[in-house]
Amino acid sequence: MATTTNGRPHILRNPHPRLVGVLGPEYTQSHLAFISRFGNKLDEYSLSLDESFEQLLGRVRGNVTPYLQSCLLPFYNSSQEFIIELCHMLTEVPSYVVDAFPSDVRHCLMVRQGVNNSSEIEALYSQRNAFKQCDRWLTENGLLVEQRLVDSTAVAARIVKTTIDHKYAVIGSKELAVYNGLKILSENIQKPNNITAFFVVGNRGRKAEGNPFVFYAVHMKAGEDENRVNDLIESFGFSKTPLWTYPHRTNGFWYAFQITVDKEEKLKSFHAKLDIDYLKHVQFGRMSKPITQCVKELGSP
């Protein structure tokens, strides 16, 4: 865990740090994932908070200064499942996935000092996924006030902190409450097994023997067998490593796998076939090394 001062991360300014970018602001989920992953290596890594995924990828790829050694990109969360738009960004120009890891998402209900219980709350502020991840608790506890969407939990906390003539509440992390001096009314109000999974994306892949890897997840209909997609993979001559399967939240299931690409021109035909045969598929670009084990460790949500 990161060294902290008054509840804030103390980022050591190494003269030659490995600069890692995340989507800010402070104490949103990406920032907490950085602290979890790199917090005990602050003599080696420095943090950069950026405003958009496009900006992060541009800095990793050397299109925007200052350049990043790597960035953290969320590719899956328990409420939204695969973040397809973001995943497709990885395929537009070369980028390399060098690691993957899960981050537990825990939410609190927080208010300004002086508000003593949830019955006083006039409205809730948070971002869309946080509301989805906590909707069961809100219903069970009768907190059915107006939900006001903002871009991030950090923005929500600033609104509640600075609004003195109304009794508003925020859904966000415990660290966010400490950072903003807000009072926590209830902790761990999220659904069970609530995670966000991150890829660590770098600007260069390992010069390894063999060919680059590509990660896929295919949304298959209920009753379908993953052997069907396995046969398709084999028909293109790709080497495949199956990773995991788990239910889709509305219909069927996700089947995730990693392939080794010998001739990249084959990928376009392979993608076209997937588009015809399946409900949806997600491609995650090149990988500098197999991530079979670290993806398996994500578990089933």
Can you tell me the CATH superfamily of the largest domain? Periplasmic binding protein-like II
Please give the alpha-carbon distance between the first and last residues: 24 Å
Radius of gyration: 21 Å
Overall morphology: globular
Instruction: Encode the helix/strand succession as letters.
Output: EEEHEHEEHEEEHEHEHEEEHEEHEH
The residue fraction in helices comes out at 25-40%
- Strands, total number: 17
Count of folded domains: 2
What is the overall pLDDT average? 81
Q: Count of helices?
A: 9
CATH architecture of the largest domain: 3-Layer(aba) Sandwich
The fold-level CATH name of the largest domain is: D-Maltodextrin-Binding Protein, domain 2
- Percentage of residues in strands: 25-35%
**Ranges with pLDDT <50 over ≥5 residues?**
1-16
Query: What structural class is derived from the secondary structure elements?
Result: alpha/beta
CATH class of the largest domain: Alpha Beta
Molecular structure report:
The protein has nine helices and 17 strands. The strands form three sheets. Strands 3, 4, 5, 6, 7, 13, 14, 15, 16 and 17 form a ten-stranded mixed beta sheet that branches. With 301 residues, the protein is of the alpha/beta class. The chain folds into two domains: 4-104 and 195-296, 3-Layer(aba) Sandwich (D-Maltodextrin-Binding Protein, domain 2); 108-187, 3-Layer(aba) Sandwich (D-Maltodextrin-Binding Protein, domain 2), CATH 3.40.190.10. A hairpin with a 3-residue loop joins strand 5 and strand 6. Mean pLDDT is 81; it is low at 1-16.
